[in-house]
Amino acid sequence: MSESYVCPRCGNKDPRTIGHRNGKPYCRLCLSFQGKEADASYLPKENLSLSLTYPLSPKQEEVSKKVLSLLKQRKNALIHAVTGAGKTELVYASMEHYLRKRLHVGFATPRKDVVIDLAPRIEEAFPKAKVVSVYGEHTSLLVGDILVLTTHQLYRYPKYFDLLILDEIDAFPYRDNQVLNAFFYRAVKGNYVLLSATPSQKDIESIEKDNGEVVTLFERYHHSPLPEPKILKITPLTGYFTCMRELRGFLEEGKPVFVFVPTIDEGKSLFHFLSLFLPGGGLVSSKQEERRIEIERFKSGTYRYLVTTSILERGVTVKNLQVIVYHADHVLYTKAALIQIAGRVGRKIGATGGEVLFLSESNTSEEEEAIYEIHRTNIKAKLL
Fold it and tell me: What is the pTM of this model?
């Protein structure tokens, strides 16, 4: 009976989403996840070691050792670290520990773009390791010394990873996705580490219940404070002109700018307006297949600014970047999203400052809470 059927892949047991074929039940929630599973007999090469070309800060080193200590006790960890703290570097020592034992190590993230950006960094840190990226349309090779993959691909690795790291636990589409959450926990054979700049209270309670601890880092690696956003009032008539004025000011100072928009349609409309007066810009969204090219043009200086949806709120670091959030009062902009967006600014040594502007018709509680949280984090960093 479907009422008693539990999907072995995602744990779904809702009879409304259980179908039958040839008299046998199947799960409709994860039916689309079809493909080859990884060969668990593959073992990482011997003598794989970490080779960082830069030192960790004292606080980073402290957190890194704490996480490794927890894992050695077979405990899980949630690293709550501010944006720009260098979360990836905090797990390198733990990854090295498992690799030296020739155990399976994975680094998962909800978004393909982050996988593409992250894999070269991990290759640089572990130059002798075979680092394999696995994401949609890139699944011909499923095994390697270190796997960097999207959460969608975790269904290929049942009880596979001795150490599985999950970055951006609050990011779409992983957040509150029953199937992807199930894929993650099903893929863990040993222990896991979660990374987030904005964990929820539910995340914190869950890790504490699941044989784990929260480890915090409220300081950026360069010790400078997080830029605190400012709110600028706009109206339906003045919004585009205010955005253009602020953008022009940044561009005249030679500073690159991200202009965040809540929707693709808003982005197209705003970009059309801005490009009439301010040439040298680009537009990116999740619907663009060639968005990587546009992002590289921005990084190389070909574009002076990018109008972007939330696709660039995480995993991107650009020196001297300034940020404008258009319609920051939109319902899609949660506190966590606004904190992540603000965290794009001031990430590089030599350019640790910068401005974050929220353009809003009305102040929302999400905006105010985001600003308060960033301010509170800066105070914590001074006190610790």
Answer: 0.90
